[in-house]
């Protein structure tokens, strides 16, 4: 199908993109385009304008600032996958993005686009929750930082306000932390039927799931069960039981609610076993 008619605008800086958003209030930002363009072709979205931010250099790259990793919103999955900084300090992200789509998707898709789109089956939202990331947004009223726990508010819905642009992701460096991502992918789209990200920093455990509900969410029951406990096979097996009730989970052709609940337990166990090296 073809999209409805729209104006195309190209921004060369964040300031220019913000100005264009003010001029076109119902415009959409074009990053990698792998989510937006198919949605427009199906006429599920019909923005009057697209603002292309793919060439905004200040939104790209991975860097280390003291005890924090800073990732520009336009950094592609491929750049995350091959980043030596991330491999050394946050191996969860290269592992997670490697499981996204195929090489062509990873060459164009961006971390900021994924988080702002907030697909309920996307891989990176759960990773951000497990990592305790902070998301920086810039808008007409200035800059603010949003905790990942507060960012995902519903299906395809985030805490971003009208006219704001997601500019950076800040991830704390947790030296010595154990982390992993396990995913049961849809065989065609490679989206997560269920995916679980875990980070174990000493006795502190953070875990999050994607694909199960209307947005990525923390697995509080798992975190509490393993808090202060050694990552043994027995402890992991005991903790990964009945993590989510089927009643509020997604139900579609890929999996029933009950099967998704089962997959959450299985993927959580796999991620923890991998993180622990068991």
Supply database-style keywords.
five-stranded antiparallel β-sheet; alpha+beta; four-stranded antiparallel β-sheet; 3 domains; about 280 residues; Uridine Diphospho-n-acetylenolpyruvylglucosamine Reductase, domain 3; Enolase-like, domain 1; 12 helices; Uridine Diphospho-n-acetylenolpyruvylglucosamine Reductase, domain 2
Give the quaternary arrangement of the chains.
single chain
Mean pLDDT: 95
Query: Can you count the beta strands?
Result: 14
Strand order, main sheet: write it out.
4-5-10-6-7
CATH architecture of the largest domain: 2-Layer Sandwich
Low-pLDDT ranges: none
For the largest beta-sheet, the strand count, sense and barrel status come to:
5 strands, antiparallel
- CATH fold group of the largest domain: Uridine Diphospho-n-acetylenolpyruvylglucosamine Reductase, domain 3
Total domains? 3
Q: Rough shape?
A: globular
Proportion of residues in β-strands: 25-35%
Q: Output the structural class.
A: alpha+beta
Distance between the termini: 48 Å
Task: State the helical fraction.
Answer: 25-40%
State the helix count.
12
Order of helices and strands: EHEHEEEHHHHHHEEHEEEEEEEHHH
- What top-tier CATH class of the largest domain fits best? Alpha Beta
Specify Rg, calculated over alpha carbons. Answer: 19 Å
Report on the structure:
This protein is of the alpha+beta class and 278 residues long. It has 3 domains: 7-52, Uridine Diphospho-n-acetylenolpyruvylglucosamine Reductase, domain 2, CATH 3.30.43.10; 60-172, Uridine Diphospho-n-acetylenolpyruvylglucosamine Reductase, domain 3 (2-Layer Sandwich), CATH 3.30.465.10; 178-276, Enolase-like, domain 1 (2-Layer Sandwich). 33% of the residues lie in helices and 26% in strands. It contains 12 helices and 14 strands. It has helices spanning 14-23, 36-41, 77-81, 84-89, 92-98, 103-108, 111-117, 124-131, 148-151, 220-226, 233-239, 257-276; strands at residues 7-10, 28-30, 49-52, 62-65, 68-72, 134-139, 142-147, 152-154, 157-158, 165-172, 178-185, 192-201, 204-210, 217-218. The chain has a 5-stranded antiparallel sheet with strand order 4-5-10-6-7. A 4-stranded antiparallel sheet has the order 11-12-13-14, with helices on both faces. It has a 3-stranded parallel sheet with strand order 1-3-2, covered by helices on one side. The longest helix is centred in the last third of the chain and has 20 residues, at 257-276. It is globular. It starts with 6 loop residues before the first strand and ends with a helix.
């Amino acid at each position: 199908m073809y999209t409805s008619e729209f104006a195309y605008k190209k921004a060369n800086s964040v300031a220019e993109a913000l100005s264009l958003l003010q001029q076109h209030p119902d415009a959409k930002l074009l990053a990698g385009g792998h989510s937006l363009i198919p949605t427009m072709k199906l006429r599920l979205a019909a923005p009057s304008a697209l603002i292309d931010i793919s060439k905004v250099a200040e939104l790209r790259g991975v860097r280390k600032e003291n005890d924090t990793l800073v990732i520009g919103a336009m950094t592609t999955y491929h750049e995350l996958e091959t980043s030596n900084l991330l491999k050394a300090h946050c191996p969860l992200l290269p592992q997670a993005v490697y499981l996204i789509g195929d090489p062509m998707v990873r060459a164009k898709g961006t971390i900021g686009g994924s988080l702002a789109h907030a697909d309920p089956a996307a891989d990176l939202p759960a990773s951000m929750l497990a990592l305790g990331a902070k998301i920086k947004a810039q808008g007409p009223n200035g800059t603010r930082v949003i905790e990942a726990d507060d960012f995902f508010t519903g299906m395809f819905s985030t805490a971003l306000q009208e006219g704001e642009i997601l500019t950076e992701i800040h991830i704390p460096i947790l030296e010595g932390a154990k982390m992993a991502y396990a995913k049961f992918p849809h065989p065609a789209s490679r989206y997560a039927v269920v995916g679980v990200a875990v980070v174990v920093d000493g006795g502190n455990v953070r875990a999050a799931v994607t694909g199960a509900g209307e947005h990525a969410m923390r697995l509080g029951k798992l975190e509490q069960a393993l808090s202060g406990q050694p990552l043994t096979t027995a402890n992991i097996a005991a903790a990964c039981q009945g993590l989510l009730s089927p009643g509020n989970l997604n139900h579609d052709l890929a999996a029933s609610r009950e099967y998704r609940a089962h997959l959450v337990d299985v993927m959580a166990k796999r991620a923890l076993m991998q993180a622990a090296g068991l």
